[in-house]
Amino acid sequence: MPRNSGSQDRLTDLEEFGADPGSLHAGIYIPQNFPKNGPLVVVLHGSTQSAESYDLGSGWSALADECGIALLYPGQRKSNNPISSFNWFKSGDSRRGAGEPLSIRHMIEQVVDDHEIDPKRVFITGMSSGGAMTSVMLATYPEVFAGGAIIAGLPYRSADNLMEAVVRMKGYGGPSDSKLKELVREASTFDGPWPTISVWHGSSDSTVDNSNADSIVRQWQKVHNVEGPPTHEEKVDGFPRQVWSNTDGREVIEEYIIKGMGHGTPIMADGDEGLGEEDKYMLEVGISSTRHIAQFWGLT
């Protein structure tokens, strides 16, 4: 039986969180064992998904029970986007101080205040359009996040309209490496220390080409000043993990390209360490991205 069966009704509504200029919905999950000054993970679902379905598939709330993590699930409304995608490619929803990013920022402020969360331990992850919106949040509000994980996503400001978004998803065009760095630098007045970055992508993703994963890595390599080949490589659950460490030896970027996997979030539902439940875009491949991302962030 899946470990977090019944998580369909685990999230409770966050009723009020500022002006909500992006007109989003918000669900939260605070486990019973949540400690004072505990961490918060913000989780962004993909297109055609809901916060509840992403939680069930990814197993985040099961891990939250295990490790004492608070969860915030921003949710898209069909009135904003007919397939429930976050609007990461719209200029009004990809800049600091406006639209969907500001709504998510307000939600985070509210949850941090309500539940005595450590503001230095706020993290964000998302898949597909949620992954692309994770890129937006990390670039526009870098001071808010200790780390981010982008699954099957795209670099920040790689597209500025729907037409460009479709082309970038197929792996064509896009800003130069130096422009990618500039876009992050210009998104806020922040000057570091920057959030750590975890990148996950299927090698056989035909919805969002995996060249986008490498572009995300290059965008943040320049920001973190860790350009060039990975500092080290290893196998984790049979899959290659590439890591870039800074001059202090701290791991600041990691990348997993999951061989043979299509578009979705990598999960491992079975076994003692199992989390989540297989579904469309929740792909059973024998590695739990949820567990390894939390580990990278020091939450497990």
TrEMBL record:
InterPro entries: AB_hydrolase_fold, Esterase_phb, Plant_Biomass_Hydrol_Est. Signal peptide: none annotated. Keywords: Hydrolase, Signal. GO terms for cellular component: extracellular region. GO terms for molecular function: hydrolase activity. NCBIfam families: esterase_phb (TIGR01840). This is PHB depolymerase family esterase.
